[in-house]
């Protein structure tokens, strides 16, 4: 009897794993394609205007930006939707609505699934210091670089100088961003990770802050017990004019 129960539980677990890691990907891929197409259509319409309009606050569930992580391959790009509810995240990575927008001083924070539902953040654990994250909006290309991971002291300073400006590198090495790691594991309750200045709960956005991007996902796989956090700093913001594309998009 016990053996039959264990066998049934095992089969159900396998079915659930299959559903989460495969079947939900199909539904998410369809929703992501629809969101991406709608985003392209809106941008095309805006490009015909003399002065493209950047929405200050997108509607929940709608795509407003596109994210590229070149180290994951030239085909890695996802439309980012507004909101982090389950219904939002099944369509793609979701922007924490209370955080800043791309390129703004403060923290542009985005959540994404690691298993199933498109699994856009499945490989966050393989990111390295200085890897690029490029965010495209209706009128701007924004390039962020992952902060140093797992190092401190002189090693952290050296890593920061490899891809940040001298001023940014010093803030990261020994200044007010010296405690912000490029990647780490924390608890779901640690909401300070998406604060305007990561690590400080309730910190308000202000012009003196660096423009940051934070990615959050579940850890470990198939579990909500912890959160993996990735922090990156804006190093370039360029208007979308002509055929310009960030050089970072060619990295791999």
UniProtKB/TrEMBL annotation:
Keyword Chloroplast: no
Keywords, in A-Z order: Hydrolase
Nucleus as UniProt keyword: no
A Pfam family of this chain: Sortase
Annotated NCBIfam families: class_E_sortase
Protein name per Swiss-Prot or TrEMBL: Sortase (Surface protein transpeptidase)
């Amino acid at each position: 009897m016990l053996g039959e129960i264990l066998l049934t539980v095992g089969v159900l677990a396998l079915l659930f794993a299959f559903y989460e890691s495969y079947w939900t990907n199909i539904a998410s891929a369809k929703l992501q394609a629809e969101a991406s197409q709608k985003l392209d259509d809106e941008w095309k319409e805006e490009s015909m205007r003399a002065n493209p309009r950047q929405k200050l606050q997108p509607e929940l569930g709608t795509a407003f930006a596109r994210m590229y992580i070149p180290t994951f391959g030239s085909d890695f790009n996802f439309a980012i939707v507004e909101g982090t509810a389950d219904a939002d995240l099944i369509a793609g990575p979701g922007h924490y609505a209370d955080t800043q927008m791309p390129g703004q001083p403060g923290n542009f924070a985005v959540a994404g699934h690691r298993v199933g539902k498109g699994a856009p953040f499945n490989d966050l654990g393989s990111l390295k210091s200085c890897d690029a994250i490029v965010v495209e909006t209706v009128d701007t290309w924004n390039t962020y670089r992952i902060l140093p991971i797992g190092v401190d002291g002189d090693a952290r300073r050296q890593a920061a100088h490899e891809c940040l400006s001298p001023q940014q590198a010093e803030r990261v090495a020994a200044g007010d961003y010296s405690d912000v790691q490029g990647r780490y594991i924390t608890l779901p309750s640690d909401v300070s990770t998406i604060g305007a200045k990561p690590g400080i709960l309730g910190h308000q956005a202000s012009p003196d802050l660096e423009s940051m991007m934070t990615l959050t996902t579940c850890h470990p796989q198939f579990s909500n017990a912890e959160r993996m956090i990735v922090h990156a700093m804006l190093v370039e913001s360029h208007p979308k004019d002509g055929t310009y594309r960030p050089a970072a998009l060619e990295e791999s």
